[in-house]
Amino acid sequence: MKKKILLIQGGSSSEREISLRSGRACLKAIKKLDHKVIILDPLKDKLSKIKDLKVDLIFNALHGRDGEDGVVQSYFEYFKVSYTHSGILSSMNAMDKIFSKKIFKKNKLNTPNFISLNAINYLDFIKKKKFKKSKLNYPVVVKPSNEGSSVGVEICKNFTELEFSINRLIKKFKSLLIEDFVGGQEIQVAVINGRAIGAIELRPKRKFYDFKAKYSKSAKTEHLMPANLQSNKYKEVLRLAQRAHKALKCKGITRTDFKFENNKFYILETNTQPGMTNLSLVPEIAKYLGISFIDLVKKIIDNASTNR
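^ that's the sequence the OP posted. Answer follows.
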């Protein structure tokens, strides 16, 4: 049945350009599905316009702050329009790495040891030159607590590097997460409507799987689909991704990132608005399993609802 769909893309987050690329790819697919499409960019248009557009549903192609942290979802719910991907609370919890790690721990999902810093307590942390009562060991990873696409992520081998990173990042991001660096294999799992469909392994040529490794062909990140895991471990990581999706009460599609080291999986985060670009992993996993990009977009549209 032909629908009038509002495609929301762009926005003002650090992932704006990725969102525009996702939006362009989804726009083509939605048109091929014979739906009418209207585009809205929150950087240029007020979200209050939604109430006057009289659309059947909203396809959310935003990434990053305001797009996948529950903010834009609150507008969708307020205007009572069906929309794709996860709802307000699950988006907020998944986007905030501190909240999500607490939820993972509560649900017995193994995640690297961590501590959190904010604009108030970071000075005390630096002054004491220690990890307080934490069990962290160098090297450690420093990252903003509520950014995606590896924005602001740094690896520190000693306190000098850590202090430099904290002082610089805290001014921009206000809230930071410091966790144990876990080596090993980079494994990411796609979940569609509560079912894990496959796991891909990434082998970056760069220091780690950073923003450039994710979105630039020149980075030459190697993609192995399916992930190079023993059969029992492959099935295990699929189950873990499903558990994470369920623990966060996610809807639609998600992508959960893991590290696999010493025969153990460590969950890093769950993404409620995974990329839909030509280098994105959920479409790549789906394609390997015979699900075309158009079919993937259709599954996302068919799952749309309110009260998510």
